[in-house]
Amino acid sequence: MALLLGITQWEVEPWLERLRRLAPERDIRAWPDIGNPADITYAAVWKQPPGLLATLPNLKGVISLGAGVDHVLSDPDLPKVPLGRVVDDNLTTRMSEWVVMHALIHLRHQADYALLQRQRLWRELMPSPSASELRVGVMGLGVLGLDAIAKLRTIGFDVAGWSRTPKQIEGVKTYAGDELDAFLARTDLLVCLLPLTPATAGMLNRSLFEKLAHDGVLGAPILMNAGRGGLQVEADILAALDEGVLRAATLDVFEIEPLPVESPLWEHPRVTITPHNSAISDEDAVGRFVLRQIERHEQGLPFEAPVDAARHY
Ligand code: NDP
Ligand code: OXD
After folding, report:
1. How far away, in angstroms, is 35 Cα from ligand 2 center?
2. Which atom of ligand 2 is nearest to the CA of 86?
3. Residue-wise over 83-97: b if at least 16 C-beta within 10 A, else e?
């Protein structure tokens, strides 16, 4: 009855220490020191080594240590056991902070004012429109998209949303499925909070950028992506910025992470980069969430945020 941490690309020690502190009674192990594979009944994972979970004969459930599950589902040998993911108020709130903060930075030309400050220049740039004049479009109306929309609306942005299946959100125009082009045509600032799936991979590309509104108050549209780097075509973003198809891009996720030092995105004057930390969360809160999922499952209850792999794709 042991819990295995299957983590790559994150430091495993802090997770091990945290979970052992929160649940001292549990046998918690970390790959690659798994001991007898037959002891492992649950696995909590972030980019687990492909094939690892298939070597655990008594595995009863898997929990993603993040809200996204693309990193779990990409394992071709994923055992058919229940899969859960993190849905936590702390994580959700942090993501909405990132969305609102960067939307406001664009609205108020703050990146340009920061440059002027470095040059000791007291100068007013073009008048900033009010939030109600900026049409924000949120792609993905799940846990994160809905919270971001609520908070963007509090500031006064003119918000719409797009998802796979139709949704009703009071006071918000929503689009679904093949209404994507209509959604893009009314969007000045595009916020992507979609999961990475075969259907969404590479969709933030040149053709999509051209369909965004080009008659908005900021002149050209803006891209913000905190979904996954696999959704975006970085060469297209750079070309679209240079040709004025996009005004600016704020990116938290990248095709390759960490973003390689040689990437031209680093130095592009219209690109803002954050290191995949938009939803940086209270780690104890996530740890408690993970342990609660295992307790629930041991009592015969489903995970709080179960993932239906077939539907996810
Ligand atoms: P949810 O599963 O709650 O919501 C996903 C939304 O995306 C749903 O509205 C779903 O539509 C929509 N969607 C999925 N596939 C498609 C598609 N093909 N076309 C249109 N819409 C689609 O996920 P969360 O909101 O919790 O998280 C979203 C993503 O954010 C995660 O998967 C992860 O990749 C990313 N993330 C990034 C973080 C970061 O630090 N940068 C932190 C946390 C998450 P429908 O409801 O109709 O199915
Ligand atoms: C997540 C992430 O999926 O941090 O939670 O990217």
Report:
1. 28
2. 5
3. bbbbebebbbebbbe
**Distance of CA 207 to CAs 196, 237, 289, Å?**
19, 11, 40
Closest ligand 2 atom to residue 91 Cα is: 5
CA terminus-to-terminus distance, the chain: 31
Residue 155 in this model has a pLDDT that exceeds 90: yes
Kindly state if the Cβ of 140 falls inside 6 Å of ligand 1.
yes
Amino acid at 111: A
Nearest to 212 by CA among 187, 231, 233, 235: 187
Given 3-state DSSP classes, what are the helix, strand and coil percentages for the chain, each rounded to the nearest 5?
35, 20, 45
Contact 220, 244 (CB under 8 A): yes
pTM confidence score: 0.97
CB neighbour class for 80 (10 Å; exposed up to 12, middle 13-18, buried from 19): exposed
Q: Cα(249)–Cα(251) distance, rounded to whole angstroms?
A: 6
Name residue, tokens 């495993």.
Answer: 12
- Within a 13 Å sphere around the CA of 266, how many CA atoms are in the beta-carbon half? 8
Shortest-distance atom of ligand 2 to CA 66 = 5
* Pocket-testing residue among 164, 224, 231, ligand 1, by greatest number of atoms within 8 A of Cβ: 164
DSSP 8-state assignment for residue 33: B
Ligand lying nearest the CA atom of residue 93: 1
Query: Residue 275: is the preceding peptide bond cis (ω within 30°)?
Result: no
Distance of alpha carbon 302 from the chain centroid: 24
d(CA 138, CA 193): 7
Catalytic residues: 228, 276
Residues 7-63 pLDDT 10s: 999 999 999 999 999 999 999 999 999 999 999 999 999 999 999 999 999 999 999
